[in-house]
Amino acid sequence: MLSQPFSVSFDLGGGREVTIGTGKLARQANGAVTVQQGNNILLATVVANKEPKEGQEFFPLSVDYQEKFASAGRIPGSFFKREGRLSDSEILISRLVDRALRPLFPEDYFCDVQVLITLVSSDAEILPDALACLAASAALAVSDIPIKEIISEVRIGRIDGQFVVNPSRAELAKADMDFIIAATEKNLMMVEGESQECSEEDLVKALQVAHDAIRIQIKAQQELRNKVGVTTKRDYTKPEQNEAIKAAVTAFTAERIKAIARAGSSKHDRSDAFKVLKDELIASLGEEADDKTKKHAKKYYEDLQWELVRDMILDDRIRLDGRQLDQVRPLTMEVDPLPTPHGSALFTRGETQSLTTVTLGTPLDELLVESAAKSDYSKFILHYNFPPFSTGEIKPMRGPGRREVGHGNLAMRSLKQMMPGNDYAYTVRVVSDVLESNGSSSMATVCAGSLALMDAGVPIPKHVSGVAMGLITRGDGKYAILTDILGDEDHLGDMDFKVTGTREGICGVQMDIKVDGLSMDVMREALNQALKGRLHILDGLYECIPAARAEVKPHAPRMEKLIIDKEFIGAVIGPGGKVIQEIQKETGTTINIEEVGNFGEVSIFSSNKESVVKAVNWVKGIVAVPQVGEVYEAKVKTIQPYGAFVEFLPKKEGLLHISEISWKRLDSLEGVLKEGDVVKVKLIGLDQKTGKFKLSRKVLMPKPEQKPRAEQENEASEETSN
User: Fold this and answer.
1) Binding residues
2) Is 575 in the same domain as 645?
3) Is 157 in contact with 171 (CB distance < 8 Å)?
4) For binding Mg(2+), which residues are annotated in this chain's numbering (predicted)?
């Protein structure tokens, strides 16, 4: 097993040992570590440039997590048989690490930093995503790259009422809470996860358990850093400051910034006003002002705007659009705005709008979700699109980015809690197209998705809504919790906290914290304020459509699912698929058969209800066991002198003897039956030697009364004389 010169170990609980090592691999990186639990090994490396690029004005951090298929002894299923672009799962894990690491770097640090985390050995029962951030933080800890603190990340699952740190795959499958939580020794940094309608207090307990586990991991990283001998961090070039320009900017713009912020204007009006002020500021510097002076002025202007708007909210309890701190923007919503999709909804909250559609598909439409450890199929898919026109911008369309993947995943995890189980045969795809955006389009997606699912007739029992919360704090202890934040409030705030759920509990959470010292009391207050906002939006959802439609729309595919004994699967499929192909061709349906345990699940789809009924009856006939005494509708296949052969169940024929057709004696079937006729028959017996079915029609007919013998003899003699 892989070993390193320097290593430390700690116990996750239950004798599960995790080892962090460094000093042997990737030694030209600024920092490199391995994190091992069982057979699971992650390699994390970090490299940072010594100097920022000229003119750099933001922190360029990139984090990539990748799973090597060789780690699980597998070859990728792609055409090229090699790992390609990051999968959605890898992107989501990369985002979890990125969001936790980003606040650790100094605000004036603009050097390029690249963090690469690779799964090099996989363990079937150990989830690597819970260890990825630990590996990245440890690589930073043993490097000389300047970071303010060490962090770590754990998964918390609640299984049978008990919280478990980093549960196994098998344990997580039984969990009703699943959260990834990152923190420093003192403060929470990031929360992401889902639950089956947990309470706000349950979430707080999960955060506390996670923080205790994280502190142990931080201590282990500190021990490793001490073993390596890292005592100092590298110096870096800090942005040049000019106090004179800063004072001039404050004098010229401060009062006008306050006036614009207090105007309660719309997003674009406010943005235009701030831009005009910036242009006037630059013009006031004079024609002799060089590019460096203008750059300083723009930077100080943006900093001053950030500071003054925060102070306005904290001191005057006034928001940029004039709302109260706990007020949700006006809501407008409707279902079925589009005639062709199987379900659709338009949800508008203030200046944020989502047009969402639902498509119902067959099991053949399931999504393959492939990772190094395993491949799964998902029957519930949600895609989130954020076109540039939603913010009035022009950008190249290059497919979904990491932001789209992350926001879509939060909405998917939230709505998934209400989706029907595996007995629901449809594959369901939800697509949210954001048409306008000014704050939390992901929460609009949750609301629009809930409406569209009910409009499509997907039997979700409850609506799910979501609201984005913000937090602004100051060193004097003042803080303000904001409900339904604007895009500008997200930018200037210290916390972005999205909560989704039903009236009964929380379904999803995504939180990023940029402030030190967030207490659990403030967290509880934020959660309770989020609950009020969530309930307000839920009232609107229920008013729009109170429950899922009883049936899918006429143009949506109809679906029936039959559970048959395992032994009949072959009979339904037929040799070489002959039978199932015939059923599909004759009925115009799509049929999918899946073996589940000792049973077969037969899913039948068609946009025509009669086609579904016909196929269902056909399959039922194949799997039905003929019962003596049962009555069947039979179709005449061939006529013989001695009777008619009829098909009374699909592919099951029997002889309807001429003596069993009528109580009256028949010499032939001419004028009585012909091929194609449908008659009711009763199964009266089974020949044990030949296996042939004995059928009767006459037993279902009234038996004529028996005439006296003398009368029968007279009738016979009359016929003879005639």
Assistant:
1) 490, 496
2) no
3) yes
4) 490, 496
